[in-house]
Design goal:
Structural class: alpha/beta
Shape: globular
Strand order of the largest sheet: 1-3-2-4-5-7-6
Radius of gyration: 19 Å
Number of helices: 4
Order of helices and strands: HEEHEHEEHEE
């Protein structure tokens, strides 16, 4: 049986990157504070992952590091603005691009300020020594670590 090709007059739909959509939300703001060549990145600040922004700011201030924060503060449903790190691609955010360009070493901070079971902080990056220095500084500030998690790319410490 012959097949019939149907031509559409509509242009193919392209999916807008999640990062680009999130940046359009009025509750979202970005912070870029230039510093030294160590970059502290908090891609889930404000209400997205409570505690992330505050810890990242404290680390950057104490070390003179470059800081990038993506933050959202809605009354509810901040989790809908969660963008995975792999979706935060170059060319969408000038502030993120500036922070990446200024950083020879990147360290990511993820805070999960849960009300049940206590808060958890993740410190990650590909530079093991730098991650351990930040983790050590957090330890001195009485952030306590749980198990080391090996299931994510790079070096990751879970602080509990």
């Amino acid at each position: 049986m012959p097949t019939k090709t149907i031509k559409s007059s509509r242009a193919p739909r392209t999916k807008e990157p999640m990062f680009k959509r999130v940046l359009k939300d009025p509750a979202v703001r970005e912070v870029f504070l230039p510093g030294n060549s160590v970059g502290i990145f908090a891609p889930h600040g404000g209400g997205i992952e409570p505690g992330t922004e505050e810890i990242a700011r404290a680390v950057a201030q104490a070390t003179g590091a470059t800081l990038y924060v993506l933050s959202a503060k809605r009354p509810t449903n901040n989790g809908a603005l969660h963008v995975t790190s792999t979706e935060m691609i170059a060319g969408i955010s000038q502030k993120l691009d500036q922070a990446v360009a200024a950083s020879k070493v990147a360290i990511s901070i993820h805070g999960h300020g849960r009300t049940v079971g206590g808060g958890v902080v993740y410190v990650s990056g590909l530079a093991d020594d730098a991650v351990q220095l930040v983790a050590g500084a957090l330890w001195c500030c009485e952030v306590r670590f749980g198990e080391r998690a090996f299931h994510l790319a790079g070096v990751l410490w879970r602080c509990a």
